[in-house]
Amino acid sequence: MPLFGSIVHRLDVVDSTNNYANHLVEQNLAVHGTIIVANYQTQGKGQRGKAWIADKGMNLTCSFLCFPDNLSVNRVHLLNYWISLNVLSMLMKNGIEARVKWPNDLWVGTKKIAGILTEITAQGTSVKSAIIGVGLNVNQTQFPELNATSMLQETGSPFILAEILQEICFLLNEHPLESIHEDLWKSNYENRLFGRFRRMKFIEEGRSFEGEIQGVSDQGFLQILVGEELRSYVQGSLSFEIPTEF
Do residues 132 and 171 share a domain? Predict the structure, then answer.
């Protein structure tokens, strides 16, 4: 199976690297490990239809094409665990302590440093292909009206984008999705959850409530202890009230 980084499409401007990757898949021009990286996205995608905004040439905006072996659609959350943990490892190697704000934002303290968007195509009950979009704030220093940070802001040093991508590829190749047992991916992901075992406020359908994140279910749902009741939440069903300090 080809390694991540063996085929890289480098673009100056594109609407979205995930869209470009989708075109490759539709035209049967994609192979496992292909990466699309752009200096600037005019329509960068975030979760729940939100835009991903990044200054041109300052951040890593890319998509990874994956053709997983024997991954069922009801286990697609493992892709999120896999990419999140490997990007977290890269940040750690560069002196940055980050956590996962469920389901797939990466935060330093109470500020966002990266976002991940996974899109799949299915064949029956199996995942045929997956496109994993990663937006990582690297050298940007100004985030007007956004609660965000960057690698440069956290360390005081600029980074070379190509080297950061290379570091992520190395980790993905060293720790392929199939190489580690599902329970271990889940456990490691839970251990990196933002706010775990801390009393926090959440919003569901416009109503605020307090609870403590306990972990994730076997289906990838967020589990929150509210009073004595353990509740499960699917992606997009609630939002966090982020404290100013954490």
Answer: yes
